[in-house]
Design goal:
Length: 194
């Protein structure tokens, strides 16, 4: 079935103002004006963030919704896709964020608005650990865009975790996917937006 509702989840220290989120929102609005779009600002607590997202999409049809997520947002997108049984597009997705973010406890400013701060607490990392997936159950529901040049996350861990999914492995690239616009057509083909 074609996708009628699309949720986009930003990464750690990011926001709906990220270049990828804004570009995706713009292309969805221009090419697919009938699609319901949501890109919320996620709070630091994974439990609170996912509770808020689940409440926001509670009336969405699971069989025609999809989720996109970048980095930590990709981790959340996979968790939600398993819970809701929908498609997911993952952009350099975090696989073990509790391990990766534990050294970064404390106060942080957002990339796109340094006046906004939040505190990453030990409890937040513990919440991430409880959400980690051993494996995905339906690889055909997933499309992953992974850059071998990602300076923050290991491409081998990402590809192994999403084995069986449709994976576009970039030979170089970076964590932020600076060539993201070049991959939108393939992503949208997978999503099959109305």
């Amino acid at each position: 079935m074609r996708t009628t509702h699309l949720l986009y989840l930003h990464g750690f220290l990011s926001s709906p103002a990220s270049a990828k989120a804004r570009l995706t929102a713009d292309v969805v609005a221009r090419r697919h004006p009938g699609v319901t779009w949501l890109c919320p600002q996620l709070v630091a607590s994974p439990r609170q963030a996912m509770d808020a997202v689940l409440q926001s999409v509670a009336r969405w049809p699971a069989d025609t919704m999809a989720i996109m997520g970048s980095s930590l947002g990709g981790f959340y997108a996979a968790w939600l896709a398993e819970k809701l049984g929908c498609k997911a597009v993952l952009l350099n997705p975090a696989v073990r964020p509790a391990r990766d973010l534990r050294p970064h406890l404390g106060e942080h400013a957002l990339w796109h608005d340094s006046s906004q701060h939040f505190v990453l607490e030990p409890a937040h990392v513990d919440e991430m650990a409880t959400m980690e997936l051993d494996q995905i159950t339906r690889p055909e529901r997933y499309y992953a865009l992974i850059a071998k040049g990602d300076e923050l996350l290991d491409w081998r861990e990402m590809t192994a975790h999403f084995a069986g999914a449709a994976i576009k492995l970039l030979p170089a690239g970076d964590h932020g996917l600076s060539d993201y616009a070049e991959h939108l057509d393939a992503i949208f083909d997978f999503l099959d937006l109305v």
